[in-house]
From TrEMBL:
Record keywords, A-Z: Hydrolase
Annotated protein name in UniProt: Fungal lipase-type domain-containing protein
GO biological process, one term: lipid metabolic process
Keyword Hydrolase carried by entry: yes
Chain residue ranges for the region called Disordered: 1-22
Record carries keyword Hydrolase: yes
InterPro entries xrefs: AB_hydrolase_fold, Fungal_lipase-type
Domain named Fungal lipase-type: residues: 184-223
GO MF terms, alphabetically ordered: hydrolase activity
SUPFAM superfamilies linked: alpha/beta-Hydrolases
Superkingdom field: Eukaryota
Length: 383
């Protein structure tokens, strides 16, 4: 689940994007001496900075623009930790260049108390920077605050705790025992209380997407619905494998049971009250971005029984028993794992993907707990 794992770091000598309403013009070639993660080297090409035109027609209403900017915010969190490890100063730091062009500012970093690493950050709309470029108000659709969470960083200061949480998910398909889960939960609740849940969003990549999904789901169960953008979320775990075996055994038992004579009292035992509760509740529909060649997240595309995905429908309510997510699938044939799992693909110029409101087996299982029973409380010592 690594996003940034190179051991050799080149010295950065260049700055970031353009000012005001001009296009962020990015260099065509990665010139020697420029850091490979500098915004002008590996960032998105030809992306507009907010300008007065956004007051008439907001770029944030374009799904491609929103996906690109939010992916840049997650990249900034990776670089916040790299800047810390490399002891960069504010003058030569890499991370700020990934949010400044979009008129946002960093207001809080989330630090893992186990190793002191930065795993998340809260970015808020920078009204002062916007006014300096005659953007008098926040464009429609632009969140007031974004909580961005990074994934695994294969560098010696962070790899132990990152892999520890990777293994936690692999074993239990849950991250609630991690201090990062509770740190992200506290931070998201704080900005939701400050700005309202409809004005903020949470986003993550890889392991960070796993945290974002579980934090967003936990808040949704409390009735706080926050927009979520999940890039390459993990979909593989031992717990899932054992659960699949149990589901198959349960299916066989139901088939056998259906062949046995039953009392009339037990027939048609579907609980109409439970169905009406689900139908009447507001639904939380996260945005998932997956690559078919990425074995970590590709299982999200598995359909739930005979339920077919519904293409090009932006507002679809999950039917009874199935819970939907906006699933964006990239298919580029055979790709190397690091390319298929990388964050950079989600702002590339040649990005081609299909959007569907997907009733997948994995999504249905993960979101089912939202609509059954009281909120779950995390117990035990944080590790």
């Amino acid at each position: 689940m690594a996003q940034l794992g190179e051991d050799e770091i080149l010295k950065s000598t260049g700055g970031g994007g353009s000012e005001g309403g001009e296009k962020v013009v990015l260099m065509e070639n990665k010139e020697e001496g420029h850091h490979p993660y500098a915004f002008h080297v590996s960032g998105p090409r030809n992306v507009s900075s907010p300008n007065w035109r956004d007051l008439i027609s907001s770029s944030w209403k374009d799904g491609n623009y929103k996906r690109t900017v939010i992916a840049c915010f997650i990249q900034a969190v990776y670089l916040l930790e790299l800047d810390r490890q490399e002891k960069r100063t504010p003058e030569n730091a890499l991370a700020p260049k990934w949010w400044i062009p979009f008129k946002y500012k960093l207001v809080q970093t989330l630090v893992d108390e186990r190793d002191g690493s930065i795993y998340g950050g809260i970015l808020e709309w920078d009204r002062s920077a916007a006014l300096a470029d005659f953007v008098l108000m926040r464009p429609s659709g632009a969140p007031r605050a974004v909580l961005a969470l990074r994934g695994t960083l294969l560098k010696s200061p962070t790899i132990r705790r990152d892999i520890e949480d990777d293994l936690r998910f692999l074993a239990w398909e849950s991250l609630k025992g991690s201090v990062r889960f509770h740190g992200a939960m506290k931070a998201l609740k704080s900005v939701a209380e400050k700005y309202g849940s409809s004005s903020i969003c949470i986003a993550g990549h890889s392991l960070g997407a796993g945290f974002a999904l579980q934090v967003g789901k936990a808040l949704a169960k409390e009735g706080i619905y926050v927009e979520a953008h999940l890039f390459n979320p993990p979909s593989v775990s031992l717990a899932m494998s054992f659960r699949n075996i149990g589901e198959k055994a349960g299916f066989v038992w139901k088939r056998v049971k259906s062949m046995l004579p039953l009392n009339s009292e037990n027939q048609g035992s579907t609980d109409p009250a439970a169905t009406s509760i689900i139908a009447g509740m507001k639904q939380w529909v996260p945005h998932l971005y997956v690559n078919n060649s990425d074995y970590i997240c590709c299982y999200y595309t598995d359909p739930d029984g005979a339920e077919n995905s519904q293409t090009e429908k932006e507002n679809t309510r999950p039917c009874s028993g199935n819970f939907a997510a906006k699933l964006f699938v990239m298919s580029k044939g055979n790709q190397k794992f690091l390319e298929a799992h990388g964050l950079e693909q989600w702002w590339s110029d040649d990005l081609e993907m299909q959007m569907a409101v997907q009733h997948s087996k994995l999504i249905s299982r993960q979101l089912k707990s939202l609509y059954s029973g009281p909120p779950q409380q995390t117990q035990g010592k944080l590790q």
